[in-house]
Amino acid sequence: MASFKKVQEMLFLCLIEEIMEEEEFVLLSQENRPSNLPFHAAYEQFSLENKDLGECQADFQVEKRDIPLLTDALRAPSVFQCHNGTAYKGHKRSY
User: Fold this and answer.
1) pLDDT by residue (tens digit) across 6-58?
2) Using CA atoms, how far apart are residues 93 and 95, in angstroms rounded to an integer?
3) DSSP-based three-state secondary structure for 87
């Protein structure tokens, strides 16, 4: 049995090659959509430094330059470890 990703790729190719019409593509792609989100390993690693000013404002409702002030005001620890073992080792003040 083909994976959801393979089926979606094949459906997209059929649409591009005009093997199927748009209505059929929409119906089949909705029926062949996974119910679960991809695992977190499939996402790129988060980096605040790679976010531009607009993305920070949109994602966090905070200006990028205000993040160090916010972490100080909230007294966020410089080092903490999550339940899954992931360690956070502070923030850089280079925003």
Assistant:
1) 888 899 899 999 999 999 999 998 888 777 776 767 667 778 888 889 998 99
2) 6
3) strand
Long-range contacts of 29-35 (CB under 8 A, 24+ apart): 32/4, 32/7, 32/8, 33/4, 33/8, 34/4
Residue linked to tokens 């790679």: 50
In angstroms, the CA 34 to CA 23 distance is 20
CA distance 86 to 76: 16
Task: Answer for the pair 91, 68: CB distance below 8 angstroms, yes or no.
Answer: yes
Q: Which residues contact 82 (CB under 8 A, 6 or more apart)?
A: 88
Please tell me whether residue 81 adopts helix, strand or coil conformation: strand
pTM: 0.42
The tokens describing 89, both together, are 């080792």
The encoded tokens of residue 35 equal: 């119910």
